[in-house]
Write the structure tokens for this entry.
Amino acid sequence: MMPVRGGAGLILNSDSMKPIYVQIAEWLETEILSGSIKRDEKVYSQYQLAEMLNINPATAAKGLNILADENIVYKKRGLGMFVSEDAKKMIMAKRRNQTLKLLVAELVREAEHLQVTEEELIQMIQEAKRDLKGDT
Amino acid sequence: MMSVLEFKDVTKIYGKKKALDNLTFSLGENKITGLIGKNGAGKTTMLKIAAGFMRESSGEVKVFGEHPFNNLTVSANMIMIDNDMNLPAALNLGELLETAADFYKKWDMKLARNLLDYFGLDPKQTHNGLSKGMKNTFNAILGLAARCPLTIFDEPTNGMDAGVRKDFYRALLKDYIANPRTIIISSHHLNEVEDILEDILLLKDGKQFLHKPIEELREFAVVVSGKEGAMKNWLRGHEVFHKSDTEFGRTYAVIRNDLSDDQIAAAMKNSLEFSTISNEDLCLYLTSQEKGGIDDVFNKG
């Protein structure tokens, strides 16, 4: 595990299965979801990201380009990249269909291994949800 | 994109040994490239020819479109930092900076002085009186402050403390962002430098083995492991870069990542496991001669 770099609160993990530029894209998505970067606001430039995270600017650009390709951000010539109107909606849809599905599949597989019944699993999910609410 | 450095079928022969063997590659403008390879792979020879310190035996070398050997245009626009730099012994560090300032057009004296101060080097000291790590720190400062369109660092962090290494690479990245230029860094420690690289050039036996964006290196190979018998069958027809058998009847292999869905499905069925590998380890395996490892030494009867 790499140490936290910069003040952005993003931890880059060089050993992760995920390439660094994917980690950057996902972090920016989380920033948009949480409202840290709002609609039509400017996203960090590749050079700002490179400095913040101590990485090559080309790697940072690759991360930004993932978001641009998915229309989560849009380019303004000479000004940089900005958060699209529907960015939040798009990120949520994407994460539900991809990330969450995979996590659930993994959860179900592990439950099978451990011979946890469906009812028990659902109960565990409900408990986890209650705990989460209690925390906040 | 203009290419700053171009090698075409370059061979360099020392006595009977081919240090470079028909080496061909070109580096685009304003990229940071990591030069990787084992000792004796030809890295330093390649860099010295690129810097114009040495002549190739055959082939074509171009730096900024010109042949670099004994070429003033090239030497004014290029700096090569290595572990055995010959700096005038009569001058102290401050005077060495003044000399460099006279020679390099884009020299940044403020940066040089601030770095000297930050790293605790006294301008009144002589270069000869410095420890190996301090010498390399000073040399690295020269390399940064010269702001040359082609900047070469050959094993720049040898002897430096861990903290100094980190600071140096951070300084390099910051200065590169502010003043983009073509930079080559050769290092045995890929893990300490890989994040700031754009491309990687891997030499093996004096030839180009691989030259690609560092982010693609990660997808170049994959690690497979599983029971010996199952692995033996499954590995047939795959390009294996490294294979080792452990004492527990398991085989571990690094193979080219060009698997079809069918092959992956077959691997899953045989309980083979996939994992990733650090770029540094991958490069070690890619450039090792044998397909075994240190364990084989102990397995020999």
In short: Confidence is low (pLDDT under 50) at residues 1-8 of chain A.
